[in-house]
Amino acid sequence: xxxxxxxxxxxxxxxxNEENILAVKIIQENQKIxxxxxxxxxxxxxxxTQTVTIPNGTVNKKYQAKIDxxxxxxxxxxxxxxxxxxxxGLEFDLEDELLYGVPEISGDLKIKIxxxxxxxxxxxxxxxxxxxxxxxxxxxxxxxxxESNKNDPFWKSDGAAVSDQFLDRNIVIASKxxxxxxxxxSYREDDxxxxxxxxIGWSVIAVSxxxxxxxxxxxxxxxxxxxxxxxxxxxxNTSILNEFDQVLAEHHAKATDETSxxxxxxxxxxxxxxxxxxxxxxxxxALKNESDLKNFHATLIFALIKKYDFGYAVLTFGVGDxxxxxxxxxxxxxxxxxxxxxxxxxxxxxxxxxxxxxxxDKFSSRFGFKLVDDFSYLVLMxxxxxxxxxxxxxxxxKIEKWNEFLQDLQGNNEDGIKVEFDKNNxxxxxxLADWMDFWSPGNHDDRTLAIIY
Length: 453
Known about the structure:
Blueprint: H1 8-15, H2 18-49, E1 57-58, E2 63-66, H3 69-72, E3 77-83, E4 90-93, E5 98-101, E6 107-117, E7 127-136, E8 159-166, E9 169-176, H4 179-182, E10 190-197, E11 202-209, H5 217-235, H6 238-253, H7 257-288, E12 300-308, E13 311-319, E14 324-327, E15 334-336, E16 367-372, E17 377-381, H8 383-390, H9 399-409, H10 428-435, E18 447-452
Parallel strand pairs: 1-7
Antiparallel strand pairs: 2-5, 3-6, 4-5, 6-7, 8-9, 9-18, 10-11, 11-12, 12-13, 13-16, 14-15, 14-17, 17-18
Helix pairs in contact: 5-7, 6-7
InterPro entries: PPM-type-like_dom_sf, PPM-type_phosphatase-like_dom
Protein name: PPM-type phosphatase domain-containing protein
């Protein structure tokens, strides 16, 4: 309203009236309350509509996510509670603002957040906000574990684990059927065998990986390993071994070209015959069963070892893509005792069943020899271990990768499963078998690992 000049005095008197002054104060206070209510309501809406992203979880895998109030701008929240975590395996720590636990169920977990903003009455109804946590199923649970056919003439157990003495040391071996085979109810194609010849002081360990494309490779790998043991049982005679012992003592005292040649000759003569014996045994079985030899394709690695007063003699042979690693006493050096038959395409691997490997110019390079004062571990493994843990062949010659591998075995892994390398540990075989159940995307082949420690 426009106040004319003639009514100025009247207006001044009007606004000075105590009743009107009080009315104005009430109006101003109501305006303030309305504005505060709007600001509070708007703030609550901001929190309700705010996007809160938390990482996905996986069933049976440790989970931890911080609900950072500083980052989210929630420092004005005076009451906070999470609902809907019951039976999920998760819980929320308000002090540390941490959602943690081991998820037990998969799916979209709807988490209800109840909160009150600073300025709301203590007895006001709590605000509700829903956030979604996606929990993926345990990938292991998606794989079937179907029994293999025990009525098959070449059936063998889907897994095996054993620990024993080996020379003056200990050995632990575990072999497991891969998930890809368990999923279809097919067989474990890996195998192993070992023996201590206590009377002559030698021990032998053999590991074999049956080819996935060969229908009877499970038998091929079994024959390969057992035949190596059989050969040395029949052919390690005292006269030959005494001669080798003498040459080795001379070589240790003073290495010469002559002693090196004699050692190489002994290694080649004895280990090549053992390898060929294995080849022949598989061939005989193929003929007996009227089957093609290639159906029994299998790799083969083995080591013949003796402990002397001056150290250990380690003699090896290898065909295929399974490594033998010898780690020195203080874990600063790795000696790869064989080169691997690997190719850039399928079919790069060679097998003990292939006659041509015995005529190949590279055959002599398949043998290894090392005389060491002492060692920490001698490890033989199939590619079911090598592929996920070392990935590429070049890593097998890096001591840091082997130390990572040993740390993994000793519990530094997602599952926290530990293999305790104690000579008095009666559970070590089971521990190794449990460790070998590790999850590695894309790596679901049979796994066999033998460790002398």
